Amino acid sequence: MEFNVVKETTYRVKSVWKTLQGEGLFAGRPAVFVRMVGCNLWSGYADTRERDAARTGANCPMWCDTDFTKEGSRAYTAAELAQEMRSVGGDVRFCVITGGEPLLHLKAELVEALHQAGFFIAIETNGTVSLQEACWNEEENRLEAPDWIVCSPKLPQEQLTLEYFDELKLVLPDYHPAKYSDFAQRQRLNEVQNNQLPLLWLQPEDGDRLHQATQMAINYALDNPEWRVSVQTHKILNVE
Ligand SMILES: C[S@@+](CC[C@H](N)C(=O)[O-])C[C@H]1O[C@@H](n2cnc3c(N)ncnc32)[C@H](O)[C@@H]1O
Ligand SMILES: Nc1nc2[nH]cc(C(=O)O)c2c(=O)[nH]1
Ligand code: SF4
Ligand SMILES: [Mg+2]
């Protein structure tokens, strides 16, 4: 007898947890976070920082504050992940998909499952992956995209393929606004923002250079008031 086994797509997830969104417009808002494994700009292992920074040309491998390695991760189907997120989140229906680089994983199928489970979906991305390519719904011939896109670029703007975003977050001192002026135009006008105000953030790099980076961010915003300073509030509140 022949069996036609259709293998379901699974998603490699480091962790699912309930916390407060720490950064950007939704700072302070209860959220279910999903951290996907792996990134295209750094392997995630400390001994490869310099090598990976030289290879990718991004500085973030030198100071990324996140463990997105595969150790302790789990594979979920879209339905299993939606269920786990409902179970972890209780009444929370705001989720943030991050990583690592979440657009290496996210597909229309998962976006659909999370929407069906009632979630408003935000993502945090480095801008190197096209939404069109990641989240195209082949059957219905349309884009099945997350609802809210936060982009924190680490490569020169000419190399970024992300078509649009809702918030732009540059980590200082390595990523200067002057180098992202064309890319900043890809911010979309959206209903949440009542089609107004650009959301342009300067986020000081946490680590040895935090003090210097914070001063830079403050001074730049005071001189260029379309930019705002983003504080990583979860680190102050001491939540994950
Ligand atoms: C860990 S990244 C994951 C998502 C995606 N790979 C990206 O870079 O946007 C999540 C956010 O943390 C920021 N980030 C990482 N390390 C940081 C640090 N040491 N200080 C401040 N922000 C940091 C990133 O710029 C990004 O906005
Ligand atoms: N609480 C909390 N808020 C966050 N906002 C963006 C984060 C990320 O790592 O993508 C993050 C995070 O790691 N924790
Ligand atoms: S900041 Fe984002 S892009 Fe850079 S290494 Fe960390 S997860 Fe990857
Ligand atoms: Mg973080």
UniProtKB/TrEMBL annotation:
<feature type="binding site">
    <location>
        <begin position="152"/>
        <end position="154"/>
    </location>
    <ligand>
        <name>S-adenosyl-L-methionine</name>
    </ligand>
</feature>
<comment type="subunit">
    <text>Homodimer.</text>
</comment>
<feature type="binding site">
    <location>
        <position position="39"/>
    </location>
    <ligand>
        <name>[4Fe-4S] cluster</name>
    </ligand>
</feature>
<feature type="domain" description="Radical SAM core">
    <location>
        <begin position="26"/>
        <end position="240"/>
    </location>
</feature>
<dbReference type="InterPro" id="IPR024924">
    <property type="entry name" value="7-CO-7-deazaguanine_synth-like"/>
</dbReference>
<feature type="binding site">
    <location>
        <position position="66"/>
    </location>
    <ligand>
        <name>Mg(2+)</name>
    </ligand>
</feature>
<keyword id="KW-0411">Iron-sulfur</keyword>
<dbReference type="InterPro" id="IPR013785">
    <property type="entry name" value="Aldolase_TIM"/>
</dbReference>
<feature type="binding site">
    <location>
        <begin position="203"/>
        <end position="206"/>
    </location>
    <ligand>
        <name>S-adenosyl-L-methionine</name>
    </ligand>
</feature>
<protein>
    <recommendedName>
        <fullName>7-carboxy-7-deazaguanine synthase</fullName>
        <ecNumber>4.3.99.3</ecNumber>
    </recommendedName>
</protein>
<keyword id="KW-0671">Queuosine biosynthesis</keyword>
<feature type="binding site">
    <location>
        <position position="35"/>
    </location>
    <ligand>
        <name>substrate</name>
    </ligand>
</feature>
<keyword id="KW-0479">Metal-binding</keyword>
<feature type="binding site">
    <location>
        <begin position="20"/>
        <end position="22"/>
    </location>
    <ligand>
        <name>substrate</name>
    </ligand>
</feature>
<keyword id="KW-0004">4Fe-4S</keyword>
<keyword id="KW-0456">Lyase</keyword>
<dbReference type="GO" id="GO:0051539">
    <property type="term" value="F:4 iron, 4 sulfur cluster binding"/>
</dbReference>
<keyword id="KW-0408">Iron</keyword>
<dbReference type="GO" id="GO:1904047">
    <property type="term" value="F:S-adenosyl-L-methionine binding"/>
</dbReference>
<comment type="function">
    <text>Catalyzes the complex heterocyclic radical-mediated conversion of 6-carboxy-5,6,7,8-tetrahydropterin (CPH4) to 7-carboxy-7-deazaguanine (CDG), a step common to the biosynthetic pathways of all 7-deazapurine-containing compounds.</text>
</comment>
<feature type="binding site">
    <location>
        <position position="64"/>
    </location>
    <ligand>
        <name>[4Fe-4S] cluster</name>
    </ligand>
</feature>
<dbReference type="GO" id="GO:0016840">
    <property type="term" value="F:carbon-nitrogen lyase activity"/>
</dbReference>
<dbReference type="InterPro" id="IPR058240">
    <property type="entry name" value="rSAM_sf"/>
</dbReference>
<feature type="binding site">
    <location>
        <begin position="63"/>
        <end position="65"/>
    </location>
    <ligand>
        <name>S-adenosyl-L-methionine</name>
    </ligand>
</feature>
<dbReference type="Pfam" id="PF04055">
    <property type="entry name" value="Radical_SAM"/>
</dbReference>
<keyword id="KW-0949">S-adenosyl-L-methionine</keyword>
<dbReference type="GO" id="GO:0000287">
    <property type="term" value="F:magnesium ion binding"/>
</dbReference>
<comment type="similarity">
    <text>Belongs to the radical SAM superfamily. 7-carboxy-7-deazaguanine synthase family.</text>
</comment>
<keyword id="KW-0460">Magnesium</keyword>
<dbReference type="GO" id="GO:0008616">
    <property type="term" value="P:tRNA queuosine(34) biosynthetic process"/>
</dbReference>
<dbReference type="InterPro" id="IPR007197">
    <property type="entry name" value="rSAM"/>
</dbReference>
<feature type="binding site">
    <location>
        <position position="100"/>
    </location>
    <ligand>
        <name>S-adenosyl-L-methionine</name>
    </ligand>
</feature>
<feature type="binding site">
    <location>
        <position position="98"/>
    </location>
    <ligand>
        <name>substrate</name>
    </ligand>
</feature>
<feature type="binding site">
    <location>
        <position position="60"/>
    </location>
    <ligand>
        <name>[4Fe-4S] cluster</name>
    </ligand>
</feature>
<comment type="pathway">
    <text>Purine metabolism; 7-cyano-7-deazaguanine biosynthesis.</text>
</comment>
